[in-house]
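Reading is simple: each integer encodes one residue's backbone shape. An example follows:

___
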Amino acid sequence: MIKSVGSKVIDWVFAFICLIVVLICFLPIMNVFAQSLSSPLAIVSRRVAFWPVEPTLDAYRYVFGDPTFSRSMIWTAILTVICTLFSLAMTILCAYPLIYDTLKGSKLINTLIIFTMYFSAGTIPNYILIKDLGLLNNPLVLIIPGCLSVFNMIILRSFFYGVPVSLRESAELDGANPFSVLINVYLPLSAPVMATLALFYAVGRWNGFSDALLYLTQPDFFPIQLKLYNIINNFSSIEVAAQEGISGGVPAAGEGMKAAAVMIATIPIVMVYPWLQRFFIKGVSIGAVKG
């Protein structure tokens, strides 16, 4: 099919708009990166924009030298892996039975599950529930309450609905039970959507801090985002830097440390995107099935 001149112009305009949007989203990251590498004098004189001025690694040395920050990074990485695997297992176990028409009360179960998307008890009742369950100051509070996303479950259930019933029936004729059908038929076909949901869960857990802020008081269990939240909102890091001579007595050194902490906390999860990007189109197009 040959495109007209007008359609080509529209394509170029659309591509240019997309480029502008990408730049608008990318420039703030560049500004943070430049501040993390710039000297305190350059920051205080507001000479830092999108490239480092008088580059120095003092901010990164300070952040990496903080044992609590390194421990928080390692703990968050482990927590993200555990939460992702556990959430995927819960999503599969919730979505798979609902595709069976023979499941008694399936309509009621679907209604109750969807009901939770629109209505919730609120922060105070949730806190009371977590307290009664004995999960306060327990690392399990970062895993169990948010282990299942109804939105992700609906995506996976819709994908399972798209799998031809004939595949399931042929496996059942060969003597496979529902669990064997799940392992040998549905899961091999759902690799793209599972990778997409895994990324959703991993990003959500890596960026989450509100649950830790509400339910945890022990710093050993603080995820990286809560640690970063405390760094940004607590100027004690600037005072410590000045006492140790890192900032040279310049208050803007704290800004460089904040920027360095933001970059260190952001880069690991950003590196996951290129690895799973090839699954996005397949995962979102949940209606297609390959044999």
Summary: Confidence is low (pLDDT under 50) at residues 246-251, 286-291. Residues 239 and 245 are 10 Å apart (CA to CA). Residues 5-37 form the longest helix (33 residues). The chain has 16 helices and no strands.
